[in-house]
Write the structure tokens for this entry.
Amino acid sequence: MRVPVRLFASRELCEAIGSDASLEQAVNATTLPGVVGEVLVMPDVHQGYGFPIGGVAATELPNGVISPGAIGYDINCGVRLLASRVERAEAEDVMHDLVAALDAACPSGVGKGGLLRLDEHELERACREGGEWARREGFGTETDVARTEEGGRLDGADFNKLSSRARERGRPQMGTLGAGNHFIEVEVVDEVFDTEAARVMGLSEGCLTVMIHCGSRGLGHQVCTDYVKRFQKVVRLYDIRLPDRELVCAPLDSPEGKAYEGAMRAAANYAFANRQVLANLARDAFAEVLRSRVRNVHLYQVYDIAHNMGKTEEHVIDGVRRRVCVHRKGATRAFGPGFEGLPPEYRRIGQPVLVPGSMGTASWVLVGTAQSMERSLGSCCHGAGRTMSRRKAKRSINGGELRRELEERGIRVRAGSLPGLAEEAPQAYKDVDAVVEAVAGAGIAKKVARLRPVAVVKG
């Protein structure tokens, strides 16, 4: 071990975390060349490919390493939250129509294409410009772009480092949700904990919100696949010895490391653009269903945040300010008040942190804190965290019964398949409220509002 591991969790969550190999993976990550500080483990952690989902590790520039497995296959998988002034009671009678309209407007499913078919030139623009490309194409507003992490665009994206297969997979999938744990959820603001932060974000108790969870689709998956395969040889070239071949990596200042970083940033920008297109499609569907009942049907963006990303940041580590590549896999950035990279209206309250739960349970809006900068590299949890594999969930949970249970509780459901619905059952996840209590108790985030689902479109 080059550095220690720090785990943020309650005693009860520790028992659930110990049931898989996630902590062993965190220990393995401490052997990455150039790793500094601590490898951090969030309370929603579970086992991933080589590196735990819910893990954070920083490697120092210039010659620390970058590892695709420590960023994840769904590069820039993330969450976008839209809020409204529409009270739930005003939409209750048309909730069925609303979830149907969202399902029809936002294509979902494995390998599913969308309404847009990008040629090579437009795909390159999307990968270089991210959310700004989507805005220029008529999807979204300047405020949407401003209220997106990094302004919806990472510098240094290198389209030329994408394989032909990655481009082929990306061209038809812009503006699509995908499958797995991706979703669009209509939620109601159930309880506000920080009145001032909620006011700044435009969150009001009893009003509806729309949350979108998805990433870079097949393009991002292919980038990770390509570079994990390529780096199997690269580690031998640089004499990098690792306890797990799934952690393969390359020095950040090597040609191979720079190539992956450029491709990863291109995929991240694709994901920012994808969520923005989806948000605009959802916005139109929301307005179409509700405009005859409510005068103000606009969905305005609260924030968009990534939880699978590698980013160059500066942090004080062991008393020294260092430039590092922060690998966050299943972990969100959670910068505290005063960070200049935030929209002006959020600099005083800290960065919004969006934590979706599982179907039928709450989601949360938090803000980053000064302590998160000191204790967790400005990072926080990203969700509830699985306790059951997808295969086990499909074996033990009946999708039809689950849908009936959810609808009896007043949650409308649209799903591509019942086995896919079973994979994402609330029983397959930790208690998101306990996860949030753990990060709030550790001081690395502060509670703003709790959201309760009323309709789900499951990819």
Summary: The first helix runs from residue 11 to 17.
